[in-house]
Design brief:
single chain, 81% helix
Length: 207
């Protein structure tokens, strides 16, 4: 390499070094001007990460306590402490548990309270079971006429059964015809339509 080439190479190296140095100076000046803001942002990221981890941990702990309380209630539905723990850590699960116990025991009073629940699913299911336990065709009809009724086909079958039991065969069959062909209850609806409530009663006894 000639002396001239060496000098040119050295100049290029110095130019690159100068650029790097200039960049570092700019960064340093930017940092000094915005030091507090940068520290605040960094602190917020760290705190946010810690907070997220803590929230996840607390959520896991709540779920664990709720599950343990639910298992305790399966063993003893009268365990007030377990009910309090479940309601505190998972109110929605507590409401569903109450619904299951009320349905199992035919607890009309509890079902009436659950029908007023702010949880739409719990309220819907409680309203349906309440109408069925009361064996009220009008109440069942009122339920199935609600927009978005979760157990509409079940309500149609129950309503048809009660109507046919009361001797209103034509009305009962009309309700059965409203059950969709894709519904899992369609075979039962056909059986009730063809053979009447005797066949359905026999089916219930077999179960």
């Amino acid at each position: 390499m000639s002396i001239k080439e060496q000098v040119e190479f050295a100049k290029e190296e110095l130019t690159q070094d100068e650029k790097v140095l200039a960049g570092l100076i700019k960064i340093e000046r930017f940092y000094k001007r915005n030091k507090m803001a940068i520290i605040a942002v960094a602190a917020a990221i760290v705190v946010g990460g810690i907070g997220y981890g803590v929230m996840n941990y607390l959520q896991e702990q709540r779920l664990t306590r709720a599950n343990e309380a639910l298992l305790a209630l399966w063993q003893n539905p009268s365990d007030k402490s377990a009910w309090q723990t479940l309601e505190k850590n998972n109110p929605s699960l507590a409401a569903l548990a109450k619904l299951q116990f009320a349905t199992k025991n035919g607890d009309i009073e509890s079902l009436e309270d659950l029908a007023k629940s702010k949880d739409e699913i719990v309220s819907d299911l409680a309203t349906y079971h309440l109408a069925v336990f009361k064996e009220s065709a009008d109440a069942i009809k009122s339920y199935r006429m609600q927009s978005g009724a979760l157990l509409k086909d079940f309500a149609l079958l129950d309503e048809a059964y009660l109507l046919m039991k009361a001797g209103k065969i034509a009305e009962g069959k009309e309700r059965l015809s409203l059950i969709s062909e894709n519904s899992p209850l369609e075979p039962v609806a056909k059986m009730l339509g063809h053979y009447g409530i005797t066949a359905l009663n026999m089916k219930k006894k077999i179960k």
